[in-house]
Amino acid sequence: MLKMISKPAVKLVERYLPDPYIFVLLLTLIASVAAIAIERQSPLAVLRFWGDGFWSLLTFSMQMLLVLVTGFMLASSPPVKRILQKIAGTAKTPGGAIILVTLVSLAASWINWGFGLVVGALFAKELARLIRVDYRLLVASAYSGFVVWHGGLAGSIPLTIATEGHFAADQIGVIGTGSTIFAFFNIAIVICLFIAIPLVNRMMLPDEKDSVYVDPKVLDDEPEQMGRITRPAEKLENSMALALLVGVPGLLFLLDHFLLRGGSLNLNVVNFLFLFLAIVLHRTPRNLLNSLNEAIKGGAGIVIQFPFYAGIMAIMVQSGLAESMSEWLVSFATATTLPFWSFISAGIVNLFVPSGGGQWAVQAPVMLPAAQALGADISRVAMAVAWGDAWTNLLQPFWALPVLAIAGLKAKDIMGFCLIQLFITGIIISIGLVWF
């Protein structure tokens, strides 16, 4: 049945889903018109919101670009590639490849969302070299694992409210991860998704006549081998000693950060870890630079689109549109159903504000008073917003950009399969938030 349903969904998306750049332009226009029509903002005010906020995510944009680049360099290092190749060798059938790539992506995304995106895409390419399987579904399966990230170890909302002095601490205090990430309802949702998502992806596997395959030679991204080293500069570029003299101190700094100073894990630390592990594992500066040249090709979408999303976020927040959307959705909620409506509202807002931390800043001032007024479980409401943010990433191609860049596909190639997962995972998460 899922195979039958997925066929028209894939064709629909292939026909009508534009390039993510077109998507962000359309969202900019929709957010602008809605701010004028619903919030009664003047066109000049909306223009100012947009222009003033356009460059507000430059730091975040660079962090995201580094997630892609450093994650690619780490995942393409010889030791990691050997591990991925060894795991890929255990898949013997197309169906087995689909299940395996989904499980690897789910596990990696639960640990860290950036690592999950890159490892999932690179592992999909590795499987495509070994097994003849529909490449679109293979990459879509790698991306579908990303949906668990906000319920995992690097979830920005649960980590934020577990941090002393967070912006809502005066209102709700500090809520530890035992009440969010490691709460029974959240673990139950994660386990159900680990079971359901691979099975759904497997059941969507098209028949051979409907499948789209890729030539394994096209996926070969091995750098050209260097000739004989003759220049002193080339000796430096191929010096293992130079790489270790810089790479090892970087890793020692991280040991000091975690063990002696009790530092926490954040996006900058993750990028630092990925970079210096890549420096050590690639062994020479030249090998690292070859990997960097391959990785940077996929950064164009991030560079051009993130400023537009910053502008959309500014319109949504400054105009009051995000607050109005959230208030309307929770206006008819009860203490029991508030997590569900928080989840739905977060999913909608995420289409316009695709940033977990940014979305919490937008929705917390609405959701937290509502939870207190209704006597709802605040930690569950916070996780509902987190899951809503992660859920509609299956529809919003923003976070698929790194995966698509590595895999060499377009959003329309995978989003039809992701649309099916959107409905199924939405049901599972909703049940988990209300009844688990």
From TrEMBL:
<keyword id="KW-0472">Membrane</keyword>
<feature type="transmembrane region" description="Helical">
    <location>
        <begin position="135"/>
        <end position="161"/>
    </location>
</feature>
<feature type="transmembrane region" description="Helical">
    <location>
        <begin position="95"/>
        <end position="123"/>
    </location>
</feature>
<keyword id="KW-0812">Transmembrane</keyword>
<feature type="transmembrane region" description="Helical">
    <location>
        <begin position="414"/>
        <end position="435"/>
    </location>
</feature>
<keyword id="KW-1133">Transmembrane helix</keyword>
<feature type="transmembrane region" description="Helical">
    <location>
        <begin position="181"/>
        <end position="200"/>
    </location>
</feature>
<feature type="transmembrane region" description="Helical">
    <location>
        <begin position="20"/>
        <end position="38"/>
    </location>
</feature>
<dbReference type="Pfam" id="PF02667">
    <property type="entry name" value="SCFA_trans"/>
</dbReference>
<feature type="transmembrane region" description="Helical">
    <location>
        <begin position="265"/>
        <end position="281"/>
    </location>
</feature>
<feature type="transmembrane region" description="Helical">
    <location>
        <begin position="302"/>
        <end position="322"/>
    </location>
</feature>
<dbReference type="InterPro" id="IPR006160">
    <property type="entry name" value="SCFA_transpt_AtoE"/>
</dbReference>
<feature type="transmembrane region" description="Helical">
    <location>
        <begin position="328"/>
        <end position="353"/>
    </location>
</feature>
<protein>
    <submittedName>
        <fullName>Short-chain fatty acid transporter</fullName>
    </submittedName>
</protein>
<feature type="transmembrane region" description="Helical">
    <location>
        <begin position="240"/>
        <end position="259"/>
    </location>
</feature>
<feature type="transmembrane region" description="Helical">
    <location>
        <begin position="50"/>
        <end position="75"/>
    </location>
</feature>
